[in-house]
TrEMBL record:
It comes from the Bacteria. Residues 9-243 form the ABC transporter domain. Pfam families: ABC_tran. One of its GO terms (molecular function) is ATP binding. This is ABC transporter ATP-binding protein. Gene3D superfamilies: P-loop containing nucleotide triphosphate hydrolases (3.40.50.300). Keywords: ATP-binding, Nucleotide-binding, Transport. PROSITE patterns: ABC_TRANSPORTER_1 (PS00211), ABC_TRANSPORTER_2 (PS50893). It comes from Pseudonocardia xinjiangensis. The keyword ATP-binding applies.
Length: 244
């Protein structure tokens, strides 16, 4: 198991159950898992395997029923609501498949929003530098409806990056994109990791997973396999065996 000092996020015996009694579903079942600093991990599995729930628990978006979620040395599970909100705002970035941009705000205003919510007054140059990093320096004044799907996703990534979070979580970041745009977004994420960032990504796409440093496979809420440096074919073949 990875030593805690090298883990950006560590899960220790984490479980998450929905419902009670006979109808209860354990979406995540006693998972022990480390996500190392400066790496990109893809989380995959059949539908209903618990991958999105795992991501939400690791990012502090959902409380766990048992176990620990450690963000560095911070136990997310023991954090109060105010502390947890601050952690999500300052140390965690989250990229949603649906982008979740505010339609009334421009690209630069959407990117600046997390900083403003943290009580900061970001400079225009600071925000535009992040937009430039995702190739959108010339779209700063555009609103989401004036941007393509790929451009909106890049704004969402810039918004998640602007606080320089410890970890960037991405839930199906290419799921709503065409293949060409998806490759652009995956190339951007690769550059982010190569710059020292940590990324944890849920995806159903073997081609997307092949861009990551490693792949974790779930089934019935449990980690059942891992691959490192795998090709898209390797990932696809492993998924087929899990779905049998």
């Amino acid at each position: 198991m990875t030593p805690p000092a090298t883990a950006a996020v560590a899960l220790r015996g984490v479980s998450r159950t929905y419902g009670t009694g006979p109808a209860a579903v354990r979406a995540v079942d006693r998972v022990d898992l480390d996500f190392r600093r400066g790496t990109w991990t893809a989380v995959m599995g059949p539908s209903g395997s618990g991958k999105s729930t795992l991501l939400h628990c690791a990012a502090g978006l959902e409380r766990v029923d048992a176990g620990q979620v450690l963000l560095g040395d911070t136990d997310i599970g023991t954090a109060g609501d105010a502390e947890l909100t601050a952690l999500r705002r300052e140390r965690i970035g989250f990229v949603f498949q649906s982008f979740n941009l505010l339609g009334a705000l421009t690209a630069e205003q959407n990117v600046a929003l997390p900083l403003r919510l943290a009580g900061r007054r970001p400079s225009r140059s600071e925000v535009r530098a992040v937009l430039a990093a995702v190739g959108l320096a010339d779209r700063a004044r555009h609103r989401p409806r004036e941007l393509s799907g790929g451009q909106q996703q890049r704004v969402a990534i810039a918004r998640a990056m602007v606080t320089r979070p410890d970890v960037l979580f991405a839930d199906e970041p290419t799921g709503a994109l065409d293949s060409t745009t998806a490759r652009t977004v995956l190339g951007l994420l690769r550059a982010v990791v190569d710059g020292g960032q940590t990324i944890v990504m849920v995806t159903h796409d073997p081609a997307a997973a092949a861009h990551a440093d490693g792949v974790v496979f779930l089934r019935d809420g449990r980690v059942v396999d891992r691959l490192a440096g795998a090709s898209a074919r390797d990932v696809a073949d492993r998924l087929v065996t899990l779905e049998r």
